Every structure is written in C-alpha cells, then in structure tokens.
Amino acid sequence: MGVYAPLLGVGPGPLWGSMGRRMSSCALSPPLSSVSFLFLLLLATPGARAAGYETCPVVQPDMLNVHLVAHTHDDVGWLKTVDQYYYGIENDVQHAGVQYILDSVISALLAEPTRRFIYVEMAFFSRWWHEQTNATQEIVRNLVHQGRLEFANGGWVMNDEAATHYGAIVDQMTLGLRFLEDTFGNDGRPRVAWHIDPFGHSREQASLFAQMGFDGFFFGRLDYQDKLVRKERREMEQVWRASASLRAPTADLFTGVLPNNYNPPEGLCWDVLCADQPVVDDPRSPEYNAKELVSYFLKLATAQGQSYRTNHTVMTMGSDFQYENANMWFKNLDKLIQLVNMQDVCTCGLIHDSSQQQANGSRVHVLYSTPACYLWELNKANLTWSVKEDDFFPYADGPHMFWTGYFSSRPALKRYERLSYNFLQVCNQLEALVGPAANVGPYGYGDSAPLNEAMAVLQHHDAVSGTSRQHVANDYARQLAAGWGPCEVLLSNALAKLSGSKESFSFCRYLNISICPLSQTSAHFQVTVYNPLGRKVDWMVRLPVSEGLFLVKDPSNKTVPSKVVELPSSDNPELLFPASVPALGFSIYSITRMPVRRPQARLLQPRPQKFGSPVLSIKNEYLRATFHPDTGFLRTIEVLDQKLVLPVSQAFFWYNASMGDKQSDQASGAYIFRPSRAKPFPVSHWAQTHLVKTALVQEVHQKFSAWCSQVVRLYPGQRHLELEWTVGPIPVGDKWGKEVISRFDTPLKTLGSFYTDSNGREVLKRRRDYRPSWKLNQTEPVAGNYYPVNSRIYITDGKMQLTVLTDRSQGGSSLRDGSLELMARDAAAGHRLLAEKELLAPQVVLAPGGGASYHHGVAPRTQFSGLSRELLPSVRLLTLARWGPEMLLLRLEHQFALGEDSSRNLSSPVTVDLRGLFSTFTITRLQETTLAATQLRASASRLKWTPKTGPVSHPTVPRLDPASITLQPMEIRTFVASVQWKEDS
Amino acid sequence: MGVYAPLLGVGPGPLWGSMGRRMSSCALSPPLSSVSFLFLLLLATPGARAAGYETCPVVQPDMLNVHLVAHTHDDVGWLKTVDQYYYGIENDVQHAGVQYILDSVISALLAEPTRRFIYVEMAFFSRWWHEQTNATQEIVRNLVHQGRLEFANGGWVMNDEAATHYGAIVDQMTLGLRFLEDTFGNDGRPRVAWHIDPFGHSREQASLFAQMGFDGFFFGRLDYQDKLVRKERREMEQVWRASASLRAPTADLFTGVLPNNYNPPEGLCWDVLCADQPVVDDPRSPEYNAKELVSYFLKLATAQGQSYRTNHTVMTMGSDFQYENANMWFKNLDKLIQLVNMQDVCTCGLIHDSSQQQANGSRVHVLYSTPACYLWELNKANLTWSVKEDDFFPYADGPHMFWTGYFSSRPALKRYERLSYNFLQVCNQLEALVGPAANVGPYGYGDSAPLNEAMAVLQHHDAVSGTSRQHVANDYARQLAAGWGPCEVLLSNALAKLSGSKESFSFCRYLNISICPLSQTSAHFQVTVYNPLGRKVDWMVRLPVSEGLFLVKDPSNKTVPSKVVELPSSDNPELLFPASVPALGFSIYSITRMPVRRPQARLLQPRPQKFGSPVLSIKNEYLRATFHPDTGFLRTIEVLDQKLVLPVSQAFFWYNASMGDKQSDQASGAYIFRPSRAKPFPVSHWAQTHLVKTALVQEVHQKFSAWCSQVVRLYPGQRHLELEWTVGPIPVGDKWGKEVISRFDTPLKTLGSFYTDSNGREVLKRRRDYRPSWKLNQTEPVAGNYYPVNSRIYITDGKMQLTVLTDRSQGGSSLRDGSLELMARDAAAGHRLLAEKELLAPQVVLAPGGGASYHHGVAPRTQFSGLSRELLPSVRLLTLARWGPEMLLLRLEHQFALGEDSSRNLSSPVTVDLRGLFSTFTITRLQETTLAATQLRASASRLKWTPKTGPVSHPTVPRLDPASITLQPMEIRTFVASVQWKEDS
Fold first, then answer.
1. What is the pLDDT of residue B39?
2. Among B272, B287, B475, whose Cβ lies nearest the Cβ of A272?
3. What is the pLDDT of residue A1?
4. Are A328 and A272 a contacting pair, CB within 8 Å?
5. Which of A543, A563, B682, B800 lies most in the core, judged by the most C-beta atoms within 10 Å?
6. Same domain for B876 and B778?
7. What is the CATH number of the domain that holds A830?
8. How many CB pairs under 8 A join A and B?
C-alpha cells in the first residue's frame, strides 16, 4: 500500500483486558531474573551454504553493480477487496488487477530471457495458478527453474508485524510456502523474506523468518531518522539477532533496508500507473532523451551506492499493483540496461567526458536481478556485519508522522481475527485427531482449509492492521465467517464420531453478544466444551438463558454448582457453571431448566453504589480488588497469599485527535496517531458502580459515561483480574476526534521503562523518548512512545510488576513512571464482548441432546482427551493439523523465554515423549522440518554471515528421537508425522 | 479522439480569397448545364469478387451473429504529439503509448488463435514495425496471413474529411497502403475503409475509397437525427453513390454506420483505461457476475440487431488508444464469448428460462471478427440496398452541437498545410524529372519522403482539422518544416542539374511575411520560378526589396517591366514583375538593382481616400471593382467583356461565441461552432481606404478596424478579384468570444441554395435548413447551415454566379438568399500573407547567381520544361513522383465534372498521349493501377452490391494504350511507370 488517510473516525470501543495468565503465578510478580545463555542446546542449522543461487546473473567485479529488481506489490485487500484486486474490479477506486499482472509478467519474461521478476503474495499467485492451462503452468515452471521468475517471501500474504500473533504468522507463511513447495519443489522456495511495506518491523518476525530458513530479509519502511543515520554509517545492511533466548545463529537474519522503500528512483517509473517519460532512444525523435537519462542514472546509482558497503546496490523497479502491463516496464528497462552498459565498453559513447566519469569512480553496470541474487553477492563479499538486537518500532516517515495509530485501529476486526485463530486451532486439532471421518461425515463435507486461508488473508498488513477501507474490512470479516462454516461441519463430524452421538449441534456464534437461541429457549440441552490446550482446563461457562433455575450435570452425571446472574448491562440473564475439560479433549455437560421461577434473581440483583458507602471490593482466594469510595475507580490490587498490595488507579481518558497544526499538517488517522496535545482528557471524574456477588463470580460494573463502561471481574480460583470494557458510540457532535485510552496509574518507580511483547512471544524493553540504535529527536511525546501490544504490556520497579494482557492487538505505552495505557479506536457499535483468559480458549458447542448413535450399538462418550498424558506447562502444542493423506503437521513450542520463570523452573529445557502421546492415532514416521515445514531440518542450510559480535558456531542437527523431543526456551520444533488413526477412536 | 473542448479562443485571422480560376471563364458565369450521363465510358473494375475473405470465421446461419471487432483508435496527434503518443510520453496528460499497444496486441493474438484484431494507422504501425526483430516481423506476417491481424483503412492516418484536399488524401492513403503492400503483400491489403472518428463524412472521400478498391466503408459519427431515422428505417447500411460524374459502380461504396460510434457497448469496456467490471466467472467469488452479464449481453445484442437488416451485427470493442494491455480486453472477451455461446448449445445452463429466450428470438452467437469479415457476411446476404447520394455534413451529436467550428479552426496551420502540399508536389516532380541526381547531388542528400510523411500526418483528423492542442499544432508545423529541408536539398540538386549551374540557392521561407534577406540586401540576384502545372503559367512575382529601381531580365535576357511598390500595410517595398514559366519547368530571371534612388516611390505613394470623394475603383482588361464612396466597402464587380454587373457588398462581421445558455450547455469551441445569437455584429460600419495603382497591379487597401484589414487586388490579365485579408489580434478584453466572418451580399435570388466543394473536387448543392435524407429539426440557424469549404463556395440565380475560392479550408454558408459568408478563426498573429491563385503555385527559388558549372563545359540553361507538349486545360497532372528505383508514379486527372463546362467543352472526355510526353525520361513500361497504386487495375476486383436503383454493369477494363489515355470527367487514372532518364536532361 501507499498511504491512504481517511478522515479520522473515532467510534465505539471494544472489550479488552485480563491480567496475569501465563506470566508466572500472578499479575504481580517478582521481576524477571537474568539467566545465562549457557544452558541452551545448539539449535542452528548446519553450516553448508544454501543452494538456489546457481541461476543468478553475472556481475562485474570491478564496477558498481546495480541490481534492478522488477517487482509488484499486491496488497491482499486495502482500498479494494481481495477479489476486486484479483479481477480488477472497481478500477475507478484504484486501478489494480492482479490476474492481468501475472498474465502480463509471464508474457514479458518469455519475450526476453535476461528479464527477471519476483512475486510475493501466494494468496494471489495460487489463485491465478489454478486458472492456468497445463501448458502455461509448464512454461511458468520453466521460468521458475531458470530463476527468471523468483518467489520472494512466499507467504500467503505479506503479513503485518504489529498486530499479528506469531501463531498466525507461522500458519500463513506455512500455507504460502507449502503451495510453492508443492508446485515448484525446491526451485520455488524463496531465499529471502521481503516485507517492503509493513509499517514497522518486529523482532519476532525476523526470528520466525530465520527459523523458516530464509537467508536474508529486505524491507522498506523504517524511522526516517534511523534511515538517515544508517545511510551515514553505512548500516543499511546488517545482521539482526532476533531472539534473546534462541542461540545464535538460529534467530540471526541478515537484514537489508531498501534504498527507496520499494519504489523506483524518481523519474524511472515505467508502469502504466506512472507518468514518467519512457526511454526515447531514437535520436531523430523530438522526444529523444536517452543521453540525459543515462547521465541521470549514473549519478543516481553512484550516490546510492555510497550508502552501502559492497560494490552492489539494489533498485526496486515496481510498486503497488504495478506490471499490469509488464512490457511497459521491461521494454524501458531493457533500453536503460543497454544504454548504460554500452558505457561500460565504450566510454567514448554517449558520455563524452570519460575521464571525468572515471575520476568519480562511477563505472556502473546495471542488470536484471532479484533480491536473492543481490543477497548472494552481499554474502560473497564476505564482510563482517554489525548486529541489531532491538526492533523497528515505532515507524515514523517524518516528524510528527508516527504510524502508531494502526496498532489499535479496527479493534472489532482485530478481536474477530484472534477469535478465529482460536477456532481454527480447534478445527485443525479435531481434523487431526479424527482423521478423514472429520472431513466426510454425517454433517457433510467438513474442511479446515477455508478458515485457514481466511486467517492467512487476515494477517495481511492492511487487514488485521485495521488500515483497509470499511467495505474491505467487512469483506475480511465475511471471509472469516465463510471459513467458520466448513469448520463447524468438521467439528460436528468430529464431535459426533468422538462422542458417538449424532447430535444436532448448535454453534451459537453470537455468544459474544449473549445470544444463543438454543440455550435461551430450551428446557434441556447439552454443552460440549472442547479444550485445545495440552493440559486440563477449568473454565467458567457463561450462557445466555431466560430467567430460571438450571440443573447442570457433568460428564459423569454429577451435579455441578450453577448460577443464573442478571447483569445491569444486559437484558439477558446468564447461566454460569464451572467446567473442567481434559487436554485436547471435551467434556459434555447436560443442562435442564428447573420448574421453580426466579429464585435467585432477586437476591443477586445488583445495587447501585452510593458515594461515601463502605469500600467496594471483590475477592477470591488469591486476589482482592478495591475501589475508591468517591470515584468508583479501581484503587488497589492485593495478592493475598504473597501479602502484596499495589495501589492502582484505573480510568478512561481521551486524546484529542489532531487535524494538523502549525508544526505539521499531519492529522491523526487509521495509520497515524497524533494527539493535538500530550495530556488526555478524562472521560469522567467518577463512575457509577454496581456490584454483583455470587459464589461463582464477583463483578463490579462501572459506568463512566453514557458511552463508556467496564466490568471488573473475579472468578474463584483465578490469579488475575478481568476487566471487560465497552466504549461507544463515542460522541463526535463536538467535532473533536477522540482516541480513548484506559490508563493504570501506580506508584511504581519504573524509571522510564516498560515492556511489550513482540507478536505475542518474546518481550522487549521500551524506554520513553529513546531508541537503542540512534539518538532520538522526539517530535511526538505521546504517539512517538506508542508500541504494539499484541498480548501484553507491563511495568515493574524490580520488586512488583503490573502486567496487562489483552484479548487482541492494541497500542500501548507508559508515558509517566508507574503509568501504563492502552488505546481503543474506531470500533463497531458497542456490544458487550466476552473476555477470554486464553488465546486458545475452550470451544463451546451446544446441542439439544438425544442424537442418534454414531457407532451402532456403542454407548456415547461424554468426556474425551486426545492426549494420553498432559503436556508440561512450558510446552505449547502450537500446531496439530492435517498435512496430507495420513500425514499431520505438529509443532511443539517451549513457551517460556530464557530466565523468564526462575521460581517454578518453567524456563528450563523440557523434553516431550511423543510415543503414544496421542490417543486417536499412532505416529508411524516422524520427520523434523524447518518452521514452515518446507525443508527437512537435517538437510536445510542457510547462508552464513559474520557478525561483528564475533563468529557463531553452526552446530549439527541432533538425531531425531520421538521419545525425547527436547525444547529449549522459546524453541519451536516442527514435525511432519505419518499417522494411522485408531479404529476405535 | 473523444471530444476535448478548450476554452473558446478567437484570434487573428488569415489571408484568403481569390475568385474565378478554373470555374469556366470568370467569376461570374452562366450556371452549370445539366448533362446526361450517357457519354461516360465504363470505368468500373471487373465483376469478380475480391479475394481476402478466406480466413473469416465460421458463423451460425440461423442465429444472430455478433461480430466483435477488437480495435484501437490511435490519433496521429491530438492532446499529445505523434511522438508522445508513440512512446507514451506525458501520460499524465493522456494515458496513451502506441508502442505498447502493438507489442501487447501481438502477444495477446499469439496467446489464443481465435482472437482477431484490426489496426488502422500506418504512421504508427510502420514506425513500430521498423523497431521489431526479424523474428517478431515473421510472427506478425503469419498473424496477418492467417487473418488474425487485419488492417483496416491502412492510410498513413485516418484523415479528416472536411479540411482535407483530395490530392493530399490520395497521397496519404497511398503512403500507408504502399507500406502494407510492400510489407505484407496481398495479405495486408485492407478490404474496408474505416473512418470511425472523423467529424462528418464527405462524398469525395467515399468516391476516393471506392476508386482505391475498398469493398466497404464503416464510420461512427453522423448527425444524431440522421442516425435515429436510419435505425428506424434500417438504413444504417447502404450503398453510397459518391460521384455525380463517375459511372456507377466506380464511385459506389457500401457504407455502414457503426452502432455505437466506435466504442464498446456500455458496461463492456475492458481496457486499462476503463473501469467496467471484468467478467467474474468463478461462482465462489463474491464478485461473481457471469450470469447477469450474459443476460445483459443477450438483450443488448438483440436490441442492436433490430436496427440492421441481416442476422449479423457488429460491436466495436475498443476505443481511443485502447489495448495498451490487450490481455485485459481479450481475456474478458474470451470469457464473454465462451459464456454466451455456451447458451447456444445448452439453453439449460446459466439462463434457466430457455423457453423465454426462444420466445424473444434472441438466439445469439458471438465471435471474434473483423470489419472485413462482417462486410463479407453482409455481402453474402445478397440483399438490395438503398442508395445515398449526398454527404454526411454537417455533423451534430445532439441539439445545438454542430461540429462546424473546426472547418475554420487554426487557419494558419490549414494554410501551411496547403502551401506544403504545393511544395511537396514540386519536390516530387523534380525528383521524378531528374531521377537519382536529385537525391544525391552537390547539396547533399535530397529526399521527398520526410515531407511526404509530414503531409500525410497533417491529414489526420485532429491535424489539419485544427482540433489538436496548441503544442501539438506546433509540432505539426515543426514536422512540415522538417520535411521542407530535405526537399530544399532535393530542389537544389535538381535545379542545379537542370539549369547546369551550381547556385547558392536560397528558399526564402518567409516570403509570406515579406522577408527574404537575399532580395532585400543584394544588388544582383536571380530568381528561378518553377511551375508545377502541365501548362505554361503567367504569374506576377512579388519579392521584398529595399527601396530602389531594379532591372529584371527574362530567360532570354530581355528586360521585363517591373515596379517597386510601397504598401501602406508594410515597411517592406515589394518588387513586382510578370514571369512566364513553361509547363513542369522553370524560368530564371535576373534582377539587378539600378543606381538611381527612390524614383517612383514617391509617385506611387498611396493616398488615403476621403468620404465623398469620387468613386474608388480598380480595373484591368476583364474586370472592374468599385467601392462605396461612404463606407469604402466593395460595391460592384463588373465583367467588362460580358457587360455583366453584380452589386456585391462585402464586409466583416463577428458572431458572439456562445458560452452555453438556457437551451443547451454547449459552448463554441475548437470543434463546435455555436453563436450566441444568429445575427452577427459588424466589425465596423466603414473602412479607411488607400489606393495603389501601378501598371502591374491595382489595389485597394481597406482598414476596417485596428485588427481587421483587407487588400482587394487586380493584376493585368486576371479574370478574378483577389481579396487578401488580415484579422487579428482580435480584442478579447470584453470577454466576448468572436467568430469573424467575411460576408458577401448580392441581390441574387438564390432560393435558399448554395454550393460547396467536396475536398476541392466535386461540388455539392446545399439548401438552408434542409437535409436531403431526413426532415431536419434545425436547432442552430447559423452553425447548422455551415459546410466545409475546401476550395470554393458559390451562389447563383441561374443567370449569374458568385464564386469565392479560398486558399485553405474554411467553413462557409449562405444564411440569406444572395448572401455568402466564410469564417476565420483563432489564427496566429496577423502577418500579411501572399494570396495565391492556384493550389499548385509556382515555386520561387532565389540565388545570387554566378554558380559553378554543373556539367563541365556545358552552358547553363535559363528555361526548362519537363513536358514536350502542354497538357490540355481539363487535364491535371495529379501526381508525378518517385515510386522506386527507375519507377515513377503518375496520376492523370480530368479536372472537370460532367457538364460543368459546356461553353468551352472542357467537360468532354479527353485523351492524353504519354509517348514522349516527358522531356527527361522515357517510359519503358506502363501499368495502370487502382487509385492508391496497390493493385493492378486489370486484376483488381471489388465485392458487388445490388443497389435499389437497379443493377449496375461491371464493364471490363480496356487494354492500356500509352498513346491514348482517355480521361472521363472527374476520372483519375493512376500508373506505375518504369522509366529511363535521359543522359542529357
């Protein structure tokens, strides 16, 4: 994308919140201890150089080689939907049609064998590929084999790096790279990662790329000050050490900053979308410009080369949706190459003053190349490269222009994406556990692929980022919804098979707004709760019901406690009962409405709290939260068993969105956050409160204004406080754009520092008004300190730590010591959303009960686990999914960072025994692969680079033993398993 | 072009005028007598059907066949210059690059063998062709051979039909068609003429096309009322009988009106320049539209078919500069064809209600076709067609929207074009007369080709029409000027050889503004006057000099009378002397300044005329013109020997250009003429006059205003009055756009009729507020009665006739009986221009004299004729030009219409004996060809059509006898001659 800046819209806000979770034992905890790296095993791939560079063009060793990279940047949705871009619909909105681009590029490559092109987005390429004839496919295979068509990046999309969760990144890259692997074999495997457009770059992204086997990484956007410094220091290219846990060079990635984002140099854009003058090489034409052009190009190339260290430099010749008529570009590039290289052999030619040219040292050779071939030359240069250990957030392309708004844009879509990730994992797991019977069964054809593709699309840097147009965001949601359908069929097939009962399943997609016709109207129904985690989970089920009393029975037909709660914020009473679900399995609960009417409702009726009334508080066995009697705001959080008390004031504020001012025209928008002044306005000075106290939940309902409310909640047994808030519709009658934040203020002495996660995985330390790699000239004291918060943000004084976990990506900061804030933005209408404790929350499926038997004569099963034993807490089952006929993809992850949890030893290496682990299938063959499952780990290799920090060793890969899969902190191991499903499962 | 409407600019005006000339004996003459057609010889080509249709696609006899014609319309200059269009420069002004169009179309044709395309403009195609590799050329030859690439029209440009002279039309068509003939042989010969964009259609154009061998003609623009009537009557296609002199079917041309100008139907434009939705045939896509599209197309095709008579109809799938990315168009057309024709075989498919479809009779078959293949189906239908005998002027595309402004737009360019035609004929003739020595000689490389090409470009319908942007008009002038250079070299080589003296020739290109350094500064110089006519010419030479007396000697060294005249309108005195020049030859005059100072200047000083002074008049032996003593305006013209007196008041007026009004938004512009009211304002009510009377000229200089003046002139021996006027700069300070006219008012009873020429050849009768083929609803009483005046306009009462000849194309009308007017428009700054009597005026070349001998030892020659005998008055040597090595192109023309001149019998058939006619070469072989010289006349054939007026006979071609070339009235005969130049010439 280029920048599209719609008018600022600030609308109703979403639900968010939940503190604690995976972070050791509780929200308040001792700080991270520093642990040495010595205990790590060696994970790096073998040292042989990666293949794939044999087809690269010849360069001139004694000249400046200018690598022209012909490319198109095809957003998988932005101003238009994916289908509109593919077909070239609504070309009056934006002229772009990917089908034509690919048609055209193939023709142009065939026309002239020296031409090269790269393609990136598999969401488009695979669609195009399936429309081609066998003959065309064969032609394309040849072009790929010859290196004339090269794939870069190769993910389904070019994902965003701020708002994406690492699990979804791995999935989308796997989907794209697998298409390439299946279609082109090794020829099609991208050697370079290529994120030319995302608006800032996360360290985790680089780590994942490294683990996928990429030899290098190129991107376009970084802070303008950073870029200037790098050009000056000739640090546009260096080694990025992208993990604090993984041993180098596992997460080392050679990274290059492109000279001109991803555009061609000024005046040299020869696309149908540009208006630069074409090369006119006929001296008889009044428009003849070849001589002038060559001279311009030589100056340009020489100047650019001075910011880079080798005698190679790259020019990206293409941009958004370019090459729809590839011939235009290539014809002019052909001429440029011919004209410039004519200078090589004949200095007496167009440029007459050859002596001057040599004096400038500007002997220039220009060639069609690719990012991989350019990278290969950099590698051959055999230099020692500087090392970067932080990330490239936030991104500013000029003073006052911080692209930190999109961290929070379209929170509803961001939430839907995260929910869909959860559902996709459930769908994948059940497909893997049940095998073909999940795909073809009594409910029709079940399939995880549509949701998998939709989720991959959502990772695009204008999708989950929230930067697309409204109708495109709607289409993303449509794609997700369309993906849910076949997964629901799959779940039905799977659950019927596993439970042995063909129920009429009901998925209640609108549980998030407390609508579920079955539970609200039926006198009897059953609730299947599926748990996608590798460990048993205890979870409070909440279902909308009509008023009444219910009898809830667990899988062993024992009655479990339940409550119907009426909430001040809703007309729908909710039934609560605690469920317990085994690892990778389900429990079925049976619910029956009792004939008694309205027994507890009156007793539990929440009452308004008055000023001066006794201190309002909620508590369970671990935590107590108190609220200020005057304001109704949260006042303290106590960890009861550790006797820790943290004063925490939490309230809502809003920044006035800038419309541009004297300092800069820059306004706040979907991409860019810019408040008109640094100090936010309070939404209100006090909150109206209601208390709900039952045996199964304690809640304080706070109403800050007509458009801003919050529920603070504690369930029994929980070590964290849940804050679920609803903002919207934000009043805009005063014409003041409002960026609403939730702010926590504590007395913690945080010394300007705070911590945010990187794509939900490792954590980076942030310092206010500071960047690790250059001396920052801060132009925006608020927006310039915002960072993406994918799953958590925390502050600590070394003794206590306040962590906020979020249920979707947001932007956050700490603008004063002890303070922490998160932003909500222009969301959809203000519906109450359910909070979730976990990324992989249990999936609830309802049914009326009494379905026909699946296995004739076999009694139904009310509880099931896909695992014969639970996984240890530090192990996450990142992926369990179908990979092919009788083949599964399996990823095991150590989800703790080095030294992160010293108290419970969760940061130690951990070993998993895969033998007999899964209850429904037997693994008959196991192969370990790189992260995206495109190469066997044993034979994969990457280019070697020498970092300035000293040489790294490239250890050999240990023999794979299914009985003993050891995971180091933050390590992900990926396996392709041949399996046989058991008959009786 | 589409319509580009710049703001109205009315600027200074040009020179024009001259009455009489070829029209019988004088400007006032008896009316044309009506003569029967019986005396005509049979000129038609033989009756065998033309070949070239073998490759046409298969059609469905029982269905409506929709012929899709994929085409691009590539203006040879309009908003951008020719080179800018070719290369795709200034794409922000208009996105258009012809080089890419041709690249792209060839690729797309190769990709799918059923696709077809037509190309039209050879100015572009030939340039592109010469840039291609042999391999590509071979591919293109194959495509042409297979009928997949078809050429339509095939002229260098698609010429304008209002402002073009027939000689230049024939030249430009010959240039383009010859390229095709040389490159592709018979495969490349266009079968149809294709004038989809010109703004109205002349009858002469159709006549010329017929004589060039075209089988049919398609165009797009005609009066909106005419079109409605034709659709109603199903007369969109008919036979155009395009000559009142030539015997049918010589000038009969089957002519079709395209349904939608030249654009695709609404919603079906799939070019990179359009934004219509592409075909989405994947039902899984949310953008799926195939079903809807097919249904729309079927309705559209059926409705369109109802305006045409056969079960075939045509759709032009393309427009201005489309197909730059041909794949876009073709890919969607492929899908459309597949989807629609799927209906043919399977009515149970997408359109479910098959019964309804049959009830509508809408069984539709759609196919890639070409104009020729469509024409071929029309021909095979074997119908009897209605006949049209008038023309398609003026063109209005809606009420108040008459495209009659461009008849007069850019008069300076129109004049330069006409002058260049004159010079090109001189250049061609001398190249033919002298042979290779004209090309390579002492002055370098002389060449007629650049001027020939430039003149061809000027015939484009946005060039000489005056409808291009200013910078493009400048570039047209540049091209002409660039073409003059090599012709000047050629003339120098030729004149040196023919005269035997290597003079330092000087061409004085600025003689039209009385600047010529040589004559103005030299005491002695010589003047070579070349006469391109087939008859001796007597001509008054006028040269700027400094004051003084001059001695002028003729070729035989006899003194001829001369005068130096000082003119009130100029600082430069002019030397006048009468020259006499033999046919196709030259006379050299020697000029010497005499030592006496200012002898006659004072005597001849013009004096201002006062009111009430005696009647002002000028006269010679044939004519007298008198001027009104009060107003100074022309009052009478008398033909002395016939004792005829015609009262003629002549003065200047201006129409206020409309800016749009309540009736219509239409403003006056470069294309469209629309006065705000029908009555023009007088420029002034009287003129200041000066009289110049010498033995060699009598002139009345009239000054009407600061920006409008005129010279009325009589030379001895002239049978016409010359009016040379200068308008400009027109004051625009009052914000009133001014359209200046010169109006002649007489008492002639003209009964609403007047006469204008068609491309300078045959004459058409016009009637005010009337159209011959439909009942006109007149919306613009002035603009709707304007017609193109290419060379003359006249009115007559049956006894007397007033004819005005023009020196360039203009628009004219007769808005009241006895009145006649001509319009001048937005010209360049008001310089004095020289009047010319003839289209082929003598060419003056100056030299200091005393050059070296060309043929060593041979005395120079001061007079020369290329003809051994003069041609008869009715014979024009239309073309004498180089055709190849030792080959010449020769066109002889009978320049009188049937019955036009009964008094001197000039309308009778005339016979020319070619044996020994030319003095410098011998014709060794003579072949007669069609008009454009692309086919031998004996073997050429055209499709036969049956007109409603009854069957026509197709006589055989008589044997060619060089001794007896008979020309019927208005007949042009074209010959290719092998020649040998004589050593001594």
1. 26
2. B272
3. 40
4. yes
5. A543
6. no
7. 2.70.98.30
8. 91
In a shared domain, residues B141 and B197: yes
Q: In B, which residues are within 8 Å of A327 by CB distance? A: 100, 103-104, 107
Per-10-residue mean pLDDT of chain B, 985 residues long, equals 30 29 30 29 32 89 96 98 97 96 95 96 98 96 97 98 96 98 96 97 98 97 97 97 95 97 97 95 96 96 96 98 97 96 57 38 86 97 97 97 94 93 96 96 97 98 96 97 97 95 91 85 94 91 90 96 86 92 95 73 47 78 94 94 92 93 89 93 94 94 92 90 84 84 96 95 95 96 96 91 89 96 58 35 87 82 94 91 96 89 83 96 96 94 94 85 94 97 79
Least Cα distance to B821 among B764, B782, B784, B780 occurs for: B782
SS3 A680: coil
What are the tens digits of pLDDT across the range A93-144?
999 999 999 999 999 999 999 999 999 999 999 999 999 999 999 999 999 9
Same structural domain, A831 and A876: no
CA A865 to chain centre: 29
Which of the residues B197, B281, B462, B757 is marked catalytic? B197
Q: Tell me: do B885 and B834 sit in the same domain.
A: no
Provide the domain limits for residue A945: 867-984
**B724 in a structural domain:** yes
Contact A95 B272 (CB under 8 A): yes
- Of B352, B369, B392, which closes a domain? B392
CATH number of the CATH domain containing B236: 3.20.110.10
**Among A823, A839, A855, residue at a domain's last position:** A839
Tell me the C-alpha distance between A124 and A109, whole Å: 19
A234, A149: one domain: yes
- The pLDDT value given to residue B194: 98
Among candidates A285, A328, A475 on the partner chain, residue whose Cβ is nearest the Cβ of B100: A328
In degrees rounded to 5, what are phi and psi of residue A65? -95, 120
Residues B714 and B813 in one domain: yes
pLDDT in tens, A384-437: 999 999 999 999 999 999 999 999 999 999 999 999 999 999 999 999 999 999
Which of B95, B104, B274 is the closest to A327 by Cβ?
Answer: B104
The ipTM of this complex is 0.86
Rounded Cα gap, residues B929 and B891, in angstroms = 10
Contact between A275 and B91 using a beta-carbon 8 Å cutoff: yes
Here the tokens at position A796 are: 């600590």
* Closest CB from A90, A99, A272 relative to B324: A272
A663-721 pLDDT, tens digit per residue, is: 999 998 889 999 999 999 999 999 999 999 999 999 999 999 999 999 999 999 888 88
DSSP A460: B
Report the gap between the CA of B183 and the closest CA in chain A (Å). Answer: 22
- pTM for this model (two decimals): 0.89
The reply to whether B85 falls in a domain is yes
Q: Which of A934, A935, A929, A943 is nearest to A972 (CA)?
A: A929
A261 phi-psi bin (left φ>0, alpha ψ -120 to 50, beta other): left
d(CA A497, CA A500): 5
The secondary structure of residue A513, as a DSSP letter, is: G
Query: Across-strand partners of B574?
Result: B544, B565
The pLDDT value given to residue B848: 87
Q: How far is B919 from chain A (nearest CA, A)?
A: 37
Which residues in chain A have Cβ-Cβ distances shorter than 8 Å to B331?
Answer: 99-100, 103
Let me know whether A682 and A719 are in one domain.
yes
| B892 and B785 belong to one structural domain | no
What's the average model confidence in pLDDT over A336-351? Answer: 68
Q: How many domains does chain B have?
A: 3
Q: Is A270 helix (H, G, I), strand (E, B) or coil?
A: coil
Question: Under an 8 A CB cutoff, do A331 and B84 touch?
Answer: no
The CATH number of whichever domain residue B927 belongs to comes to: 2.60.40.1360
CB contact under 8 A, A97 and B328: yes
Query: Residue A423, SS3?
Result: helix
B293 to chain A, closest Cα gap in Å: 14
* pLDDT value at residue A52: 75
> CA-CA distance, B812 to B118, in Å (whole number)?
36
Is residue B644 assigned to a domain? yes
